[in-house]
Amino acid sequence: MSNYTTSFFSPSSREDAYKAVTEKMSQWWTPVSAPFLKVGDIAKTGFKGQSYWVFRAKILKPEKLIELECTESNMVSDNVDDPEEWKGSTLRFEFSEENTGTLIKFTHIGLSPEMKCWDMCKSGWDYYLQESLQDYLKDGAGKPNSY
């Protein structure tokens, strides 16, 4: 089973990229209830009122690696049969120094093309990572979900 993976270069520092994920997700993805400052921290995210996910910080290696495990999932969509489809999956962000910036590699471990939500989730990650996070790191103006 393959996982969703993407990577992109940002002219930002690894420190800024790391903080964008651990402390500023609401600025580029969707409202997040709390930052991820230490292993074990928990935060809830949501889309369109009914859909939400709860993540627990599994690994936090400053400026290098973040893993957030989905401990609760309630994905409400016509594109999904199982609202808990993301439960047990992990958001993995890897940061490496590249010339004049940072290479960011993202893998959603457990999100695969076999899943019913694949097209919707892939499209969402493509937008929020390649556009919104990229814009946030470049000029501080991401394009987050506003629900």
Automatic annotation (TrEMBL):
Listed InterPro entries: ASHA1/2-like_C, START-like_dom_sf
Domain Activator of Hsp90 ATPase homologue 1/2-like C-terminal, chain residue ranges per copy: 13-138
Highest taxon listed in the record's lineage: Bacteria
Any matching Pfam family: AHSA1
Similarity annotation: Belongs to the AHA1 family.
Protein name per UniProt: SRPBCC domain-containing protein
